[in-house]
Amino acid sequence: MEPKILTAANLRKTYGRQTALDDVSLTLEPGHIYGLIGRNGAGKTTLLAGLTAQIPLDAGEVCYGGAPVWENETALGELCFSRELGGKLAASIAGMRVKDYLRAGRLFYPHWDEAYARELIKQFGLEEKKRLNALSKGMMSAVTIVLALASRAPVTMMDEPAAGLDVVAREDFYRLLLEDYAATGRTFVISTHILEEASTVFDRVLILKEGRLIEDCDADALLAQFCTVSGRDDVVAAACEGYAVLRTETLGRQTMCAVRAPAGAVAARGLDVDCGAVTLQQVFVALCGHEQEGR
């Protein structure tokens, strides 16, 4: 079956006076692992829910393979959104047993892989007879991971999948994710706050800030647009002149700046500064560090 493209055009969603999505447009190309990052309240969960028709949008349209996804049973069977179960569970699922919750996935997703689901349940040590509201946070995360991976949905979206896992379980999750991606070529969208570990698996990055999509590009290409510049404050200022300085830290006369400029371009100015590579977390903090916490 030919891989299909998911597109979103001019999505808008408000909750009262708060704008959760502000004219968001994007294209999810097949065969990538997208990292969806943004601060709390940036609109990540709302975007994933909108892309999979789990909430009505105020404006805009989402299409999969050229067909609108809203009330499109065929398209929705190809799109999995496995959302975080932590916090106050909806009354409709709180009392469900793990096996019943996963059975619903088996019924809804036409590509469901039961044998793989059994492997994952064993891997994470899930007790199928337990009710969701009796699970630890880590086990809740494991349930969402099993649902997402075993769905085998061509486009699979996961909201904070590793949030409740300990470090060993998180490593297991990312290993399983990469193994499945290598075997199937599925498209994944992973929303997470834990960038130190997750950034190594993303090949494309989506950054949301206050409901707007401010970055949508190849992960390596994004990192190459930034560098850190450190040295004496006046020399750093001269080295960064003409570039967008996104973050500055000063200690005495020593300054370190995060700038939107390739390290080679800054170094070519021949000034006495040190130019360094940046991590995805540093780019994220530079771009979104002053965003106000919100809904």
TrEMBL record:
What Gene3D superfamilies does this protein's entry cite?
Answer: P-loop containing nucleotide triphosphate hydrolases
In this record, what's one Pfam family? Answer: ABC_tran
Q: Where is the signal peptide?
A: none
> Taxonomically, which superkingdom?
Bacteria
Q: Which organism is it from?
A: Candidatus Gemmiger excrementipullorum
Which CDD domains does the entry link to?
ABC_DR_subfamily_A (cd03230)
Any keyword ATP-binding? yes
- Tell me yes or no: is Transport among this UniProt entry's keywords: yes
Q: What sequence ranges are listed for the domain ABC transporter?
A: 6-235
Alphabetical UniProt keywords? ATP-binding, Nucleotide-binding, Transport
Question: Under which name does UniProt file this protein?
Answer: ABC transporter ATP-binding protein
The Swiss-Prot or TrEMBL record annotates one GO molecular function as: ATP binding
